[in-house]
Design brief:
Length: about 180
């Protein structure tokens, strides 16, 4: 399977500009997630007003790094390992993926167009992201050397930052609140 990098990039850029932008998208993500999947609510200790910024920064980092698997894979492995500490279980990834696609569709359809091609691109991408993160969570020891070489601790965190959800802090965050 090859990911539709252009479609993912274009739709995410649209999502940041349309229908109230990233804040509205992020807040709606958590509103719908907690309505449809109340069992995940206890996993979040940060209010949605703050948590949505982490979500959107993570998505922005992933979308920006799609063309650079050598940077993306350690980031996703670290993120998967970090999520073990948060209490994330494998089935949670499907809930998050379904929710993100539903909210993107709702968000982008408000001012523009959402197509089957866009939906499939996001489904494919989120499936790959989930598989990579789950594998890392289940086999953290297999990624220890990779994480170390990429500047991550074995816990999936980086020693030099309190924002591990951002791939490269040297580049400004392009997601405006």
């Amino acid at each position: 399977m090859s990911l539709s990098v252009e479609i993912l990039s274009e739709t995410f850029e649209r999502a940041k500009k349309e229908n109230g932008g990233p804040t509205k998208l992020g807040l709606r993500f958590y509103e719908r997630l907690f309505e449809k999947y109340p069992q995940v609510r206890p996993l979040f200790h940060t209010p949605p007003e703050e948590q949505h910024k982490k979500l959107l920064a993570s998505i922005a980092s992933i979308v920006a790094a799609l063309k650079y698997p050598d940077r993306l894979m350690p980031f996703l492995h670290a993120m998967g390992i970090r999520h073990v500490a948060y209490g994330t279980l494998s089935p949670h990834y499907a809930a998050v993926g379904e929710n993100l696609i539903a909210v993107l569709k709702e968000h982008l359809s408000a001012e523009g167009q959402w197509t089957e091609e866009m939906e499939n691109a996001w489904k494919d991408a989120l499936s790959v992201v989930a598989e990579v993160m789950i594998d890392a969570a289940d086999h953290a020891d297999q990624y220890a050397e990779e994480l170390k070489n990429a500047g991550y601790l074995s816990s999936g965190f980086r020693p030099d930052t309190n924002t591990p959800w951002v791939l490269d802090e040297k580049q400004p965050d392009t997601v405006a609140s």
